[in-house]
Amino acid sequence: MIATTPNLPYYAVIFTSVRTEIDENYEKMAERMIELAQLQKGFLGVESARNDIGITVSYWDRLESISNWKHNLEHTEAREKGRKLWYKKFTVRICKVERVYDFETEL
Amino acid sequence: MIATTPNLPYYAVIFTSVRTEIDENYEKMAERMIELAQLQKGFLGVESARNDIGITVSYWDRLESISNWKHNLEHTEAREKGRKLWYKKFTVRICKVERVYDFETEL
Fold first, then answer.
1. Interface pTM (ipTM) of the complex?
2. d(CA B16, CA A100)
3. Most buried residue, A30, A71, B59, B61, by most Cβ within 10 Å?
């Protein structure tokens, strides 16, 4: 469930959101978006958790891949519907991952 | 609950973790670390969610602030205890935030 990502550098998209109380197809859309993201060129992995807020981090090889994914038609439609139905608010932050350490490697 | 962050550039630390089944003071430590982080120079905000995995993203003004926080004594002790007790595994990714958009600003 923790994404296995390649050597640096790569990019992370941090999507933080607060949901409305409208459930209409939300889970189905969320699953579909992860499926669809996985099919995109340059997709490296995804991590997701939600309780009070939701945080989904997707990892990508380069900015161009993120831009392509942003402009994917089905993804664009889902975002538009998200703004109308599912999300009270959200923030998207596009980041360059510069350093990584994990359970084993940290000193 | 979504962090309000200043103009770019700033930095994000993405901490992704899988918990053990050991609860021993975990919630207390997690709350204390957020309290303590908020007191550090250069801290800008934090977002956190957990179900199958936990994702905590903290935001900082510069890499030096992240390094200072990493070397904070109480934080270091909590990480060591985390490795022994609370976490099966974790990954920390230090990122430079390069672009941001939100509910209102996205086209």
1. 0.93
2. 11
3. B59
Domain that holds residue B18: 10-97
CATH number for the domain spanning A79: value is: 3.30.70
CATH of the domain at B19: 3.30.70.100
Flag whether A59 is in a domain: yes
* Residue B91 falls inside a structural domain: yes
Residues B32 and B73: their CA atoms lie apart, in Å, by 13
Among chain A residues, CA nearest to B8 = A93
Residue B50: its chain A contacts at CB < 8 A? 49, 51
* Sheet containing strand B43-50, strands side by side: A43-50, A54-60, A10-19, A87-102, B87-102, B10-19, B54-60, B43-50
Q: Are B11 and B63 in contact (CB under 8 A)?
A: yes
Q: Give the separation between CA B49 and CA B72, rounded to whole angstroms.
A: 24
Between chains, do B51 and A49 touch, taking CB under 8 Å as contact? Answer: yes
A12 domain-assigned: no
Give the tens place of pLDDT for each residue, A23-77: 989 999 999 999 999 999 999 999 999 999 999 999 999 999 999 999 999 999 9
Residue A46 lies in a domain: yes
- Return the structure tokens found at B83: 């490795």
Assess contact for A53 and A16: CB atoms under 8 A. Answer: yes
Question: Distance between the two ends of chain B, CA-based, in angstroms?
Answer: 23
